[in-house]
Amino acid sequence: MHSNLPLKGKTILLTGTAKTATIVEDIAVLGGYAVIAPLIETCERINSNDADYIRLARQMDWLIFTSQNAVDAFASKMQQHQVSVQDFQGNIASIGTKTTTALEQLGFQVSFMPSIFSADIFVKEFPSIAGHQPRCLFIRGEKAKSTLKDGLPFELKEWTVYETVERHDQTSIIVHCIQQHQDVTVIFASPSAVDVYAVDVVPHVGWQATRIAAIGHITEAALQQYGATVDIMPSVYTMQAVIEEIMKVGDNS
């Protein structure tokens, strides 16, 4: 049945970095209650050879970004080394709408996005448009998997521009939220957040106390490895798509 407040009575726990907080207002407008409890945070990695990588990036045929965090760290390095978008001659490949939006806000034009926002789909679709033996640089986080490097049929250079740090100070907030509310959905956007939750929260409340939502099949697999049942995993790997799926489900009773 249609409702103007499809999230009324639902509590949504956001476990990603503070950037996921942008969805809080949307949840409230739809009648839901959002709790921000970031289990990970990111910080730029400062390398002694950053200037060398900036020069390398300017020579590449393709720069590849798979997260908004990588774009933000890259933007910081552009500012530090006083280079502009016009200094980069190559094409831009991106995974995810948030990543693409962040790149466009910097002034870059994204030339390629995979049909599904996932690295293993990227490696299947990208080679056909990348050109012959393209020079590619992957702008990455320290926890990025080797999917691109292993899966692409040409050399891929990599530049680690940010680190992911686990947060273990959110346990009481999450446990209290789950114990105080009946219809709770916990959203996971990365395996790193799943790891922290499994260690810090699950011993107190288990996996069955809430509805579990995953963004991306890599995150889904991480949850399943811990024995969790993933209730929501939209085909489009975005926070907005998860919220739309939560709107469709009934009470978690």
TrEMBL record:
It is an enzyme of class 4 (lyase). It comes from the Bacteria. Pathway: Porphyrin-containing compound metabolism; protoporphyrin-IX biosynthesis; coproporphyrinogen-III from 5-aminolevulinate: step 3/4. GO terms for molecular function: uroporphyrinogen-III synthase activity. It catalyses: hydroxymethylbilane = uroporphyrinogen III + H2O. One of its GO terms (biological process) is protoporphyrinogen IX biosynthetic process. It holds the Pfam family HEM4. Keywords: Lyase, Porphyrin biosynthesis. Residues 23-243 form the Tetrapyrrole biosynthesis uroporphyrinogen III synthase domain. Its EC number is 4.2.1.75. Catalyzes cyclization of the linear tetrapyrrole, hydroxymethylbilane, to the macrocyclic uroporphyrinogen III. Belongs to the uroporphyrinogen-III synthase family. This is Uroporphyrinogen-III synthase. It comes from Lysinibacillus macroides. The lineage of its organism: Bacteria, Bacillati, Bacillota, Bacilli, Bacillales.
